[in-house]
Amino acid sequence: MDKLITLENVTKSYSGKTVIDSISYDFMKGESIAFAGHNGCGKSTMLKILGGLIRINQGQVLYHKKVSFSYVPEKFPGNELTMQKYLKYVADMEGVPFADVETLIQDFFLDSMRHTKMKNMSKGSLQKVGVIQALLAPHDILLLDEPLSGQDMDSQEVFIDKVNQLRKKGITIFMSCHEKKLMDELSDQVFTINEGKLERLENTHTKSQVKVHFKVYVRKDDKMTAWPEMVPLNNRFVFTVKEEDLQETVTRIFEEGWELAGVEEYI
Shortest CA distance to 56 belongs to which of 13, 91, 15? Predict the structure, then answer.
């Protein structure tokens, strides 16, 4: 494969704290790369460096050909426009027929929110809008920052299918995420950033190099009292448990009468 982006001794600091520390690496055209690790380790910073969205303190970022980017930030901003009107503007700018917008709105289960102002949409729904915007007219490189964090399983399956179609077309993917399922199904290589250094995770199935957690989903039930750690998500609650606590947590769920809606491993 051909080199696409080269980092040469790249360093990035915030308020005196070094997040990316003298990293050198060649990223290849057509690769799909995932960056895993705890919040604050530098995943989002790495995406922004690759996309030229922030200045670095030291080193060079070299592009071996002229490239264009599609970018989905972790927090997609709301505005006064309705979702449908906003996506129509994007489609018009990209020269994409509105039929493509219609298809993606339906694919991501947002049909009922067409005329909802984006400022009134939930974070999860806004994130889907960001993904749709990027998928409408994908450019040479797709940057995905926590693209479907906390989303339902059906939306994740749609997302996986769409991105894998782009991979077959040779589009380069850089993604930061926690969901192990996305890493396993979308990535050629997975890296973490450990104390500012880029480290390849040779096999995420081994779990030895990273700390594994689980997101647990239960159905909402008006007769049940939610636990303090449960966060509402559409018709479900979601909360996080450590790997060593998973069995005990699942047992408690069934003992109390909750309906288990899913368990998702993430890194």
Answer: 13
